[in-house]
Write a structure and sequence with these properties.
The chain has a single domain, classed as 2-Layer Sandwich (HIT family, subunit A), CATH 3.30.428.10. Helices cover about 35% and strands about 15% of the residues. The protein contains three helices and five strands. About 20% of the residues are buried.
Length: about 140
């Protein structure tokens, strides 16, 4: 199930060149064309799913296993001290095809707590109201 205008579907199908680092029947990993650091890999499911919320549950486990494999590979190949793993869902997602960022990290590499400001809760009651709302939504989604 490809999206004919999707850049990542075209990469996965070999219609656009990319530096492929991993490929199997479910996923493809390739170097990001605009990396945060050299070795920044994008892992995509072969099937077109726009966000993590669209991915069938049976594919989420295999995608995470491949993320783990590529994180180990990136760390080992680049002698990195760790990795940063990220998924954007719609907001900040430049290509609407699920992709998992696997970014090599080193202490003092200049990436400061990623890019977001911290937004503390107003008070304990506000924290508890948010917790309650999320818990109710989880129950609703599970029923």
């Amino acid at each position: 199930m490809d999206a004919p205008d999707c850049v990542f579907c075209k990469i996965i199908d070999g219609k656009i060149p990319a530096q492929i680092v991993y490929r199997d029947k479910q996923a493809v990993g390739f170097l990001d064309a605009h990396p945060l650091f050299p070795g920044h890999v994008l892992l995509c499911p072969r099937e077109h799913h726009e966000t993590l919320l669209d991915v069938p549950e049976e594919l989420t486990g295999p995608l995470m296993a491949r993320t783990q494999l590529l994180a180990k590979a990136v760390e080992g190949a680049l002698d990195a001290e760790g990795t940063f793993i990220a998924i954007n869902n719609r907001v900040s997602q430049t290509v609407p095809h699920l992709h998992i960022h696997i970014v090599p990290r080193r202490r003092r590499d200049g990436l400061r707590g990623f890019f977001w400001p911290r937004q503390p809760y107003r008070d304990e009651a506000a924290r508890e109201a948010v917790r309650d709302a999320i818990e109710r939504e989880v129950r609703k989604l599970q029923s």
